[in-house]
Write a structure and sequence with these properties.
- By secondary structure, the protein is α/β, with parallel strands linked by helices.
- The protein is built from 15 helices and twelve strands.
- The strands form two sheets. The chain has a six-stranded parallel beta sheet with strand order 2-1-3-4-5-11, with helices on both faces. Strands 7-6-8-9-10-12 form a six-stranded mixed beta sheet, sandwiched between helices.
- β3, α4 and β4 form a beta-alpha-beta unit.
């Protein structure tokens, strides 16, 4: 074998190794026990605050899973809603001793793109958005994207089954609701799946769509959803972070159905407000928690592929409907069976769910207008 060929092979091996910049050896370390120090450390930076009972709380739950199941040392930093705090905090944390620096949502893409190249020895996980790998050296960033359109397809199918049915709180109108935090691509990816799932079950169903233009205004969310329910909506889906809690308040006030998001919102209110919990038939779970635990496990094994984005959906248990006591008690068995069949078809690829990211804003608007009452 000539020297030139050997040199080419060595370069190729180094490139593969660089993509798998790891947190540790391929053999998993033992879990933390009494008197042991954790080998691995992870920090989560939230562009907001805990307590949304939705997306950010799911990310925090993932950190607790990393601690409990893998024995990692963890820290969660609530950066608040002032964007001027985010980049300085990320820079400060990047100068500290962390194996994984985790953050997410579209709010943090710019900050990661600015900071990560300045700390090439650090490893970053960015969830719910991806850096633009073609525009910079982000070989130390692993991006997690979610096929929320797939989970929302199930939510839309359920909503279409419920509206106009003989369930005790349904009415004769085939009218369902959607509350979005922002008119933004990731929110509209939920919407596209929701509409397509509903249309598959009943092509005649109509969808009332409202945007709060905030993820932290539950009062406005409630006002919008009360208006939807008063129009004849009997079941609505909130995708609005903290603002979406207003929909659950509106559902309770009107005695009508709701579908939660990101976290299992029925179970969150099971003890504190059982009347409200009873109306949340299910939640479309965006399993940030599962995806962060998965990333940490791969990192610990030296198998996490930095320098790329990965899309996770129903097949990877990254999205899906919450199966809990309220779902099993309030959603008839035949509806649940039909939803299971639909889910299996999505997982197998028999059903291809459109995405707002592929359709583009004009096509999303056209779809939204096509189901407007």
């Amino acid at each position: 074998m000539n020297k030139k060929l050997i040199g080419v092979m060595l370069v190729a091996a180094l490139l593969v190794s660089a993509m798998l910049v790891g947190c540790g050896p391929e053999e998993p370390e033992p879990q933390n026990g009494e008197g042991q120090e954790s080998k691995y450390k992870a920090v989560l930076l939230l562009a907001g605050n805990l307590g949304d009972m939705s997306f950010l709380d799911s990310a925090n739950r993932g950190m607790q899973m990393i601690k409990e199941e893998l024995g990692w040392e963890i820290k969660v930093i609530e950066m608040g809603t002032d964007p001027s705090n985010w980049e300085p905090t990320l820079t400060d944390v990047s100068s500290q001793d962390w194996d994984l620096i985790i953050t997410g949502t579209f709010n943090m893409q710019t900050q990661i793109e600015e900071v990560a190249p300045k700390f090439p020895e650090k490893n970053y996980v960015l969830f719910d958005v991806s850096v633009d790998y073609e525009k910079g050296d982000y070989s130390n960033v692993y991006s997690i994207l979610y096929r929320q359109n797939e989970g929302s397809y199930l939510a839309g199918a359920l909503a279409a089954m419920v509206t106009g049915s003989d369930l005790p709180r349904a009415n004769e109108q085939k009218l369902i609701g959607f509350l979005g935090g922002m008119d933004a691509p990731v929110i509209n990816d939920f919407l596209v799946g929701y509409i397509e799932g509903a249309k598959t079950v009943d092509p005649e169903v109509k969808v009332v769509v409202s945007y709060v233009e905030s993820y932290s205004d539950p009062a406005k969310g409630k006002e919008m959803c009360l208006a939807q329910y008063d129009m004849g909506v009997d079941i609505g889906f909130n995708v609005a972070g903290g603002s979406g809690l207003g929909q659950l308040d509106a559902a309770k006030e009107r005695g009508l159905y709701a579908i939660g998001v990101d976290s299992d919102q029925a179970m969150l209110f099971k003890d504190s407000d059982p009347e409200k919990a009873e109306l949340v038939l299910t939640s479309m779970l965006k399993r940030v928690d599962n995806s962060l635990l998965r990333a940490a496990k791969l990192c610990q094994e030296g198998k996490l592929e930095f320098g790329k984005a990965e899309s996770l959906g129903l097949k990877e248990d990254a999205v899906g409907l919450a199966i809990n006591e309220f779902y099993e008690r309030n959603v008839p068995e035949e509806m649940r069976a039909e939803l299971e069949e639909i889910a299996e078809k999505v997982k197998s690829g028999e059903i291809q769910v459109p995405s707002a990211f592929e359709l583009g804003p004009d096509a999303v608007k056209e779809l939204r207008d096509s189901v407007a009452p």
